[in-house]
Write a structure and sequence with these properties.
This is Peptidoglycan binding-like domain-containing protein. It comes from Slackia piriformis YIT 12062. This protein is about 45% helix and about 10% strand. It is of the alpha/beta class. It has 2 domains: about 5-95, Muramoyl-pentapeptide Carboxypeptidase, domain 1; about 110-250, no CATH class. Helix 7 (about 125-145) links the parallel strand 1 (about 120-125) and strand 2.
């Protein structure tokens, strides 16, 4: 039999939108629409909390603490004003986006200055890699409206010699052998690999060639992957690469 107290709490919880109240681990657990929104946001940003259940349990608290730590907040596990402010700023990065795997991201909020001081033009040559480039650009802009990381499709002026042209490719895509190519086979070393590739590209640019690197992402393992899975992978790869870029330049 469902406790009348819990049943009443469930009904009351549905009255709250994200940010309307403090959320934290307690007994009985907080439940409601705002908890679902919090879990959706955390999961889409790469901080898995055991699914979108609408119940603030231990998994959600753990994911929230990781998110807060990565965003430079006190990791107290309490969703309050500062946490909600960052989630609001990243709204376009998580709203209606698929859940991604948990990962120890450094946090885009810490890298806001990085995004506005390093000009990067992202482009792909097929649907999946173009989607990754577009997602990265959108995530960067959601983090910092002054971000200079843009997709080629939204670039309003021709790139100058200081802009890092970043070609997102798949394993079967060929690139110029003179272009430094990073393979995403070791996420723990990805930021260092990107930094090294950019250094090599800058040296080459001294001789007049474009400042350009290529980054190889795995993408869907099968051509028959459905659209939802393709979108999930593109979002995951975009978060992974944006985080690596921020770490490489910080």
């Amino acid at each position: 039999m469902i406790s009348p107290t819990i049943h009443r709490q469930d009904k009351e919880g549905n009255r709250f939108d994200l940010g309307d109240r403090l959320l934290y681990l307690r007994t009985p657990n907080f439940t409601g629409k705002d908890v679902e929104e919090l879990q959706t946001a955390l999961g889409a940003l790469g901080f898995a909390c055991g699914g979108v259940s609408g119940t603030f349990g231990a998994y959600t608290e753990g994911a929230l603490r990781k998110f807060q730590l990565n965003m430079g907040l006190e990791p107290d596990g309490i969703a309050g004003v500062n946490t909600y402010a960052i989630l609001k700023n990243l709204h376009n990065a998580w709203m209606d986006k698929p859940q991604v795997e948990d990962h120890a991201y450094m946090g885009f909020a810490r890298a806001a200055d990085v995004l506005e001081h390093h000009a990067v033009c992202l482009f792909g040559t097929e649907d999946f890699t173009r989607k990754v480039a577009s997602n990265m650009s959108n995530l960067a802009m959601a983090t910092n409206p002054r971000s200079k990381m843009v997709s080629a499709e939204t670039l309003l002026v021709p790139p100058d010699g200081h802009m890092i042209l970043t070609h997102i490719v798949r394993s079967n895509d060929e690139t110029d052998k003179a272009v430094p190519r990073v393979v995403c086979d070791d996420t723990s070393a990805l930021s260092r690999s990107i930094a090294a590739a950019v250094d090599v590209a800058r040296d080459k640019a001294l001789s007049g060639v474009p400042l350009r690197i290529a980054i190889e992402v795995p993408g869907p393992s099968s051509a028959e992957a459905d659209q939802a899975e393709t979108d999930r992978l593109a979002h995951h790869d975009a978060i992974m690469l944006l985080d690596a870029f921020c770490m490489a330049f910080s």
